[in-house]
Amino acid sequence: MRQLLISSAVLFLGACATNPNDIGREPSMTPVGYGLTVAREPVPTVFPSSGRASYNSLWSQSSADLFQDPRAKKVGDVVTVTILIDDKAKFDNTTDRSRKSKANLGFDVGFNFNGRASDFKGDGDIRSGSSSEGQGSIDRSEKLRLSVAAVVTEVLPNGNVIISGSQEIRVNFEVRVLNIAGIVRPGDISRKNTIGYDKIAEARVSYGGRGRLTDVQQPAIGQQIYDALVPF
Length: 232
What we know:
bacterial flagellum, flagellum, cell projection, lipoprotein, cilium
């Protein structure tokens, strides 16, 4: 009985449709580098100071070019990320599967022993059938045009940099939050020190908000808990 109760509880909890940690909050995103197989060093909490002019010179050793603005390539440098998404997708999928099987079994056994005869007969029929039908469609359209400044937080051994940036805009009682993170190759940064989000590896873009409008759009906490615990 105890094992039955434990098994039922595990089945009930395993069938939950929603992660209880996501109740009342937006979905969490995986950290930058989660999809990579190489190990990463921890992100530093203190940024090194920028280089100063050399002795008896106005030229700084940290500057790569004299006639143009340097591109972000060191920890603490700032780069502007442009996000332009105009995506449309439409998918239709239909499946229909059926299977039938039939088996017949018969036997007839007879014998004679000391004048006694016996006869055994039997027939068997086994039939089975299964069918499955499914249909699904996706039709979505997304448009987003934003810009956000990000800071270089780490320089990888191969010269690529990890950037991270956030932006918050409050309008009345709603705060719009934009977060960007990923791995950038310094050569992809333009002369204006900007880079498109499509050139960021392991890109993590999050655009949402918090406030009264977001609270109204979400179901009540009790309803979310109920949906998370209902197994079917």
